[in-house]
Amino acid sequence: MTSTATAAAIPTASNAELAQTFGVLLIGFIFAVTLYGLTFFQTYIYYTRFPGDDRKTKYTVGLLWALDTTVTTLISHTIYHYLITDFMIPFNRLVMTRTFIAELALSGFLALVVHCYYASRIWAVSYRRTIIPAIVIALSLAAFALGFVSAAKISSESLFSRVGASGIRLTKGISGGLVAAADVLVAGSMLFYLRPTRNPGMAVPEGWYDKLVVYGVNRGTCFAIFHIIVLITLVTMPTGQVWILFHWVSNKAYVNSILSMLNFRNTHHGRGVPEEASLNQHARGSSGRTGTYMTRSGMSGIGGEDASHSVQFNVHTDTKSAEPMNIELDMVRSGYDDVDSEEIKRVGEDSTNSGGPSKPHDLERVLDSPS
């Protein structure tokens, strides 16, 4: 009898309240865990496919995986606490959990790491211009500092429903605006500097899937869109928790964008070839027989002369043959592996007589074989 009276005395949440609060958190948790599985898979692909990458990139990937794992663990604890432990408690009486506050603070550090990596990529593809990378890092540092301030303000509140209070919303909104500005600058710079017209001979994605991954994910477009949505929902719907859903998803978009960009590269002796140095047949001449492949290694020398490397093959085929022969060479600038020019010339002459290799890897095996 006492237990029945106690259960009747506990106020329960309505179906509408559950859908607007716990339902949103559950959907965000499902997306976050699903994308974490993609993070785990892409991390495994990276370390098995690119064992010869430089240590800086390897450490960055390891750090991102560790951060994403920790963030996912904190999200899981938050969901378990609200949907299992305190499920019968109305939303307006839920207590703020430490794991939710820690996730907000750690997400700011994750965004800073991602922005620093993309800033280094922009510095490389823009021929070592420092203005845009410096702005991106400055915006990210300011957002990181304000994110800690907003996390401290949230920790001072005892109720979870107060996470959208006016003072917190102002600080969180400014921090989110700075993050969104850095995201847009990153995406715009990557799209601008990695144009095929700016990098002659660069591999161009073909098919809707490749284009979606390259332009929608690798360039940083997806996390820029998600953070803009986070900012809009935080400002326009302060009493709801919709922004938390997009906030959790945006963190996964950060990590998977970098991993996708790294895994989409070509390989050369176990090292990843930068996208701007990946060559394909789009650089062929109009006759279909002459291909000039060029990779740009950045600005060097007085006056910023372009230190480009190009390899040109003139392959003459018999007029009776059905198709002209094309040779693709998976080659990068001298910072990776130097290929002797006489050896390249000899392989080009041999391929003219023998019909040549049918794939880039066949030519690579020829170059690697002892003379």
Automatic annotation (TrEMBL):
PANTHER family: CHROMOSOME 1, WHOLE GENOME SHOTGUN SEQUENCE, DUF6534 DOMAIN-CONTAINING PROTEIN. Residues 271-307, 345-371 are annotated as: Disordered. Keywords: Membrane, Transmembrane, Transmembrane helix. Residues 359-371 have a biased composition (Basic and acidic residues). Residues 180-266 form the DUF6534 domain. The keyword Membrane applies. This is DUF6534 domain-containing protein. Residues 278-298 have a biased composition (Polar residues).
